[in-house]
Amino acid sequence: MREKAIVFWSGGKDCAFALYEVRREFEIVALLTTVTADYDRISMHGVRRTLLEKQATALGYPLQTIEISIGCGNDEYERKTRAALDEHVARGVTVAICGDLFLEEVRKYREERLFPPGMRGVFPLWGRPTPHLAREFIGLGFRAVLCCVDTHVLHESFAGRDYDERLLTELPAEIDPCGENGEFHTFVVDGPNFAAPVPCEVGMRTLRDARFCFCDLAGPADDAP
Predict the structure, then answer these.
(1) For 86-99, what is the mean pLDDT?
(2) Alpha-carbon distance 94 to 115, whole Å?
(3) CA 39, CA 42: separation in Å to the nearest integer?
């Protein structure tokens, strides 16, 4: 009998690749996503909830959202995440799948501050060279779009671009090809385990906090932001 698992889900490429790697090993009961309630968008990534829901439907897994406030601090995030995970443990979930790649402090934070007793973390991509991971992801047929760029390290024109071989060759040498240091975030619109592509149109770019350039992504029926 397979263990029950939830996936820490941002809609981006790393969690999508992690899910793909373990989808047959565990019984996936939910994709767990943090949404900023005031914006109704994925926290940090800025992607509309409507697209997140379509993505989960295309993958065939239940979606669960954790609603947080603008400017949410660690206390609020930890309290709400732990409450959600406690409920899953009570239902027999024993595994949290994460797409983290190499940041030790992030993994330690999850393991020490978020996972409740009875739940362990599984990190399918951990320690694998990111140049290899990036090209393997693309080679498998995944398609993703850069939805957020840290303009302190990467030009805003990268926001809204496809995550493909051309982009990888044009990234500055100091940028991790998977953006693991926060250089950019992505939203996955298709892949080998998608029932159908997520219809997605690239819209306006918006600079927030004089640093982060968000590219608005929308489905054909979505209203303007």
Answers:
(1) 98
(2) 10
(3) 8
Phi/psi for 89 (5° steps) reads -60, -40
What 3-state class would DSSP assign to 40? Answer: coil
Residue 224: pLDDT over 50: no
The DSSP string of 127-139 is T--HHHHHHHHHH
pLDDT tens-digit readout, 145-185: 999 999 999 999 999 999 999 999 999 999 999 999 999 99
pLDDT at position 223, please?
A: 55
Q: Which residue in 9, 36, 10, 7 sits closest to 186, CA to CA?
A: 10
Largest CA distance in the chain: 50
Q: Which residue has the tokens 């009570």?
A: 90
- The contacts of residue 74 (CB under 8 Å, 6+ apart) are none
User: Could you tell me what percent of the chain has a pLDDT over 70?
Assistant: 98
Q: Which amino acid belongs to residue 223?
A: D
- Which residue bears the tokens 């850069």? 146
What is the arithmetic mean of pLDDT over 69-77?
93
Q: Looking at beta carbons, which pairs linking 34-41 to residues 24 or more positions away fall under 8 Å?
A: 34/10, 34/65, 34/66, 34/68, 34/77, 34/81, 35/65, 35/66, 35/67, 35/68, 36/68, 36/69, 36/70, 36/72, 37/67, 37/68, 37/69, 38/69, 38/70, 39/70
